[in-house]
């Protein structure tokens, strides 16, 4: 049996969708979680491929970068789209998500680094909220055209997992409104109520991000 | 025959590696280039999938996001890696490149938006140069272990194309030193001297980015 080990920090962040692929596929994996800024991580860092987490180890063969890991697992277990065109759209949505996160993160860092109130507020109103609005507009447009309720094709893909899990974080941070973003709230519920995911979500560690 | 149309701005940027995949594969494509901030682009924008370029049209079916387009073409024409593990590493390197660009771009925008000299200098020394150093360290590490001189496996992949083409831009902006970054300079030459690429590079429009 292949031994999968997924090493990340103790959060959902950029590893959770990969964990969810394992859960949906019913595949065992070692779920290694390191505290951020910990001596364990500092000790491990130089031996990781890119000096970053997550890293997936497949019988000792290491793969870095969250989307690369996720795509690798999703293609192996059937959650990457059913045609080359579906696969391209799954990839495109995940890249769009990452572009959004690149902007949204400016606000998160401002909070995390305890920047002055005005600076945090500026990052929120001038960067994070416009970025969210543009991203949600794209998601809404896709969901409006979707017959299945999934982002791509007629079954769950890793794009659904990435987007839905991030919505948990956005909700925790007050960036999702049940009234204004109804389609998106319904989408999140649909994905996270898939029986195998629901079971995992109820038992996984509860982390702020 | 499938009709491919690749629409982007009049630059190499996030579309050039896809153009190069077409050239390496010997596949005809329509190379549509719009001036940045042009009325043509403003008119087209609302009808693009994500309000952004590049967009690839495959017999009218549209795919957004540069890496998704590139991966789609590269897998179709055999430049995406030969095993799932090689494919994952190609993806990981391209994602690492995109992370680097997210930081490097802060400097480029500061220049482009004609920010005060001190601000440009700060973006260069505090963001762009450290980001380049971290990125080059990763590339160097990969090239040192490579037996073929390619980033992944024993033949050219889209990771090579993305990295080598961006090195052209970094050179133009003074971010590559022939002495300090010898392995990387040699790598760029190796890729861009592949006969079909060399021919394209000699005849393509010369653009600053």
Automatic annotation (TrEMBL), chains A, B:
Keyword Transferase assigned: yes
Family stated for the protein in its record: Belongs to the GST superfamily. Sigma family.
Pfam family, one: GST_N
Name of the protein in question: glutathione transferase
Gene Ontology cellular-component annotations: cytoplasm
Gene Ontology terms: biological process: glutathione metabolic process
Superkingdom of the organism of origin: Eukaryota
A molecular-function term among this protein's GO annotations: glutathione transferase activity
Organism: Caenorhabditis angaria
Enzyme Commission code(s) on record: 2.5.1.18
Claim: Transferase is one of the keywords in the record: yes
Domain GST C-terminal: 83-209
GST N-terminal domain ranges (all copies): 2-81
InterPro entries assigned: Glutathione-S-Trfase_C-like, Glutathione-S-Trfase_C_sf, Glutathione_S-Trfase, Glutathione_S-Trfase_N, GST_C, GST_superfamily, Thioredoxin-like_sf
Keywords annotated in UniProt: Transferase
Reactions catalysed: RX + glutathione = an S-substituted glutathione + a halide anion + H(+)
